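Example 3.2
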Amino acid sequence: MEPMMNIRKLALYSTFLSVSFCTGSVFAATTKNTSSPVKTSSKASPAKVAAPMKRAAKARNTPFVAGGEEGVIVTGTHATNRHARQSTSPITVLSSATLRRSGMMNLADALAKTYPSINMSTMGNDAGALTSFIRMRGLNPNQVLVLVDGKRRHTTANINADAGPNFGATPVDLNMIPSNMIDHIEVLEDGAAAMYGSDAIAGVVNIITKKQDHGLNMSAQTGANAYNGDGWQYQLNADGGLKLGNDGYIHISGQVYHTDHFVTNTVDNRLAGYVPAGAANELYTGSVKVPKNSNKIMSTPEETRENLGIDFGKNLTENIQFYGQITYAHRHAEAYENYRIPSGASASNPELFPYGYSPLETIDENDYAATLGLKGGHLFGFDWDLSSTWGEDLDKISNQNTTNPNMYAATGYTPTTVRTSNFRLAQWTNNLDLRRNFKIANVVPVTVAFGGEHRLEQYTIRAGEPASYEYGGTSALAGLTPQDAGKWNRDVWAAYLDGDFHLLKNWDLDFAGRFEHYTDVGNTENGKVSTRYDITKRIGLRATISNGFRAPTMSEQHYSAINVGPTSVLGLLPVSSSEARATGASPLKPERSTSATGGIVLEPIDGFHIETDVYQINIRDRVVQGGNVTGAAAISALEGMGVSLPALTQLSENAVQTYYFTNGASTRTQGLDIKADYMFRMHRYGNLTLSMALDLNRTRLTHNGMSATGSPLLNAQNIAYLTTAYPRSKIILNALWTIGKWDVNVRQTRYGETTDMMTYQDWTPTASICPIDGKQLQQSSSCFAQFKNSPRWLTDLEIGYRVNSRWHLAVGANNIFNIRPRKLPGELNQLGGNPYDTFSSQVPMTGGYYYGRVNFTL
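Structure, written as tokens:
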């Protein structure tokens, strides 16, 4: 523990060291940074060194969402000096200023606020609530590739093991990257596995970090969910740069963040049955009164996080540059689970908790990443880049304010705080990239790029403390057993080739191919063809066709768990186990995709930009939840793995369910993206920048696999998770007005309809029968109720004032009118504590949020 405490202190100290030692002037918040150190001679004058940075600042790119001038992109192409609107594939660039004006403190939330193709589920469940998950174009979080300065970012070790659209996800946790470290983000809206490898099916998010060698930026923000009076947050940021000699830099970014729980105003707690007359604000459980809102399951976690980021670079010779990056983050978070009643047939340890209790699932997480590299030119005419990146995520999952009721009944002892599991995921990635520009027959400009990659991936599961899994385990989350534990690794070898041909002045053609070998799942070959033809300087056409893949993660192949609810047990079987095979499981293989996009880029008048792109993504062998088994077969599978089940499983024939990961589906996702922006220069009345971004999206199931036992792998509920839990449309209308020292930002967001197939919960009469399988309708895994979240509009407002060249103040309100999701009817509201559809990626459940922010620039 002592080394961890020292590292956490270092993160805090570094935040304030960057404040103390960084001096000088700083570019405006919209300054463009190159993704590598500025190449200069060691003998160059300061003016010559500064000139490229000034030119880059002038070329700052914030199109579509925030408006502004174009800049050079580095995502989706190996060509140099390519602008976003010149790209053969659609790319959106989000500036740090745009993200800041979202009013959201976390990067994942800011992206969902400002980019229509990215959404988040209403609520995370269990340990999945403790990590950020974004969905792009309606696909799983695992199908989005995240890069930092063009280098693959490692993923979280904390798996979302609960049913739902995020099932099985172990994506990059964006919130572990300091948000004030970011200069801008480039989002590639296309399949790019041929360029970047696994996971780039829905698209690529490339985070470009700050690299100034001078200046100081500080900010503080606080806010709360005003209509509830909880969910209070604060965040402190500081970043600044220093020179390393005459031709180097170091940029340090530090951040401290905290948020309290946000809890929906639940007034329908049914854990103890019906409320007697005269008990409007209390529930009677035997002789004990408890508050009606005691079940706080539908909530956001309490979280405290410290983040540190360091970028550095220096010219070693005139043609060789040394560069690197280090990030570190620590998180402690706690999420409420279902309330346990103090008395009655299903009471849980009334001797220890006479008024009942709400267990807390917690995470203590340490996340590290480090990149070191050398890059240069003139190697047989090639520019080259040699880099090594290590990333690691360490998670300790615990259960607090809990009991092991069966252990207590048998031995008279139970812990109230227990460690349930540990996870570790590490990636070591080594890259060599080469690029050369030349002309064919001295006429056709060509950029050729090729390279290789080796990646070592390691995944470790450590069992929980015995008291967390013995006798059926602790309430809310049973610990992982020694049978669940293990250590696994694999090697990935890859090579790619890319050729960009500028056949005519107005015609560009790009070919890319990539081969990868996985030591556990075999080989993949992927290709991509992109082209763009500019009919005039105001009209351009572009199209791409590619195939891609996503290798099953090591978590999907080896993870298993059991979740214990007040009235149910849900077990995830490891797909490689004999118990899973007995219920129909088979080994996992890579997902395969075929993507096609086509679009038009217009500038009908100077400064008015319009982009329209249609896309289709076919995915086969999707890794999904499948093989749901209930009753005796589920009990037999869990007992075969050494799990002892609690007595509560006898309450219902559907009380025990098991499932596993499987290549169980093929889907087709089709959509339309439209983006437009224009700035009105109104002279003494200031400037008004208007922008619109729209994503229309639909996913259909094209194939439902069959298990080895001959039953469909996906039921109606799982199909809905894949196809309709994501908004059919999302539109963001933004207006930014700047006049004198004032700036006003108004954002209107419309979320389209979502549809889920909901489980019949505890208020469903026990005598009701599912007509499909003849079993109880309550908790049925065959019969479901359709529930629609109708479209919603949200309104956000931020007003800022620049006091002087250094100070800027802002106040804002997101969701001013406190729009919430549609409420569930009683028979679909689990235990009365889940008033909304937790799996819908539509309107957030948190309602109105008010905040204030102070920025200081030196």
